[in-house]
Design goal:
The strands form two sheets. Strands 6-7-8-3-9 form a five-stranded parallel β-sheet, sandwiched between helices. The chain has a four-stranded antiparallel β-sheet with strand order 2-1-4-5, with helices on one face. With 214 residues, it is of the alpha/beta class. Helix 5 crosses helix 6 and helix 6 packs parallel to helix 7. It is globular, with a radius of gyration of 17 Å. The two termini are 22 Å apart.
Length: 214
């Protein structure tokens, strides 16, 4: 049986008197991909943002390796969990390598100076997602599919135990959707990660996921 990394227990979130999600429970296992599927507005992003502490829980709990996730320090959380959101990043004057390097900031201290071992992790992460050929290009000048690869590389740079992705295929055509999910599946296998992502395309969820939460 796979090792449980993340446990979501009776998660509840409301906005005023409107209940967005209620009593949601599931586990995310190491070395597996878990997909949340549902229509737009069904609460997928709310669940993910509650898990990643962007929203405050109304009820329930989220545990990582038996620890309350909402009691971890920011640095500790950043070394355990990487988050890739739907919103498009618009970094000014940053190359793709610069964007990936920012994933090492939880380890570098306030000055953000990368040591040789950090730089090696950056290069390895770029190689894993097939991003070396455009690593020195401006992030603003590459395609949406390439941007998602770079954001995955940045997540890998954090050396997390779980990666959370909110609708990672939203802006991509079908070719890039399949390429991205193939890269993600390989990352899980090579790094023994747990992955939790939201999708609204059932056929893609079936193709990539070990477990689907409806």
């Amino acid at each position: 049986m796979s090792e449980v990394r993340l446990e979501v227990k009776n998660l509840c979130k409301s906005f005023g008197i409107t209940k967005a999600v209620q009593n949601v429970s599931f586990n995310v296992n190491k070395g597996e991909v878990h997909a949340l599927i549902g229509e737009n507005g069904s609460g997928k992003s709310t669940i993910l943002k509650s898990i990643t502490r962007q929203l405050k829980l109304v009820g329930g709990n989220v545990e990582f390796d038996g620890k309350n996730l909402h009691e971890l320090s920011f640095r500790e959380l950043s070394t355990k969990m990487a988050v890739v959101l739907t919103e498009r990043m618009k970094p000014e004057l940053m190359t793709c390598r610069d964007v990936v390097s920012s994933g090492r900031y939880p380890y570098t201290g306030r000055l953000g100076i990368l040591q040789p071992e950090d730089q090696a992790i950056v290069e390895r992460s770029l190689e894993q997602v097939g991003g070396m050929e455009f690593a020195d290009r401006p992030f603003s000048a590459i395609s949406d599919g390439q941007r998602q690869r770079i954001l995955l590389a940045r997540a890998l740079c954090q050396e997390p135990e779980i990666i959370v992705l909110d609708e990672p295929t939203s802006f991509l055509d079908i070719r890039y959707k399949l390429e991205l999910l193939t890269v993600l599946k390989r990352m899980v296998r090579e790094n023994d990660l747990a992955v939790l992502l939201s999708l609204h395309e059932l056929e893609l969820a079936e193709r990539i996921s070990d477990t689907v939460v409806c």
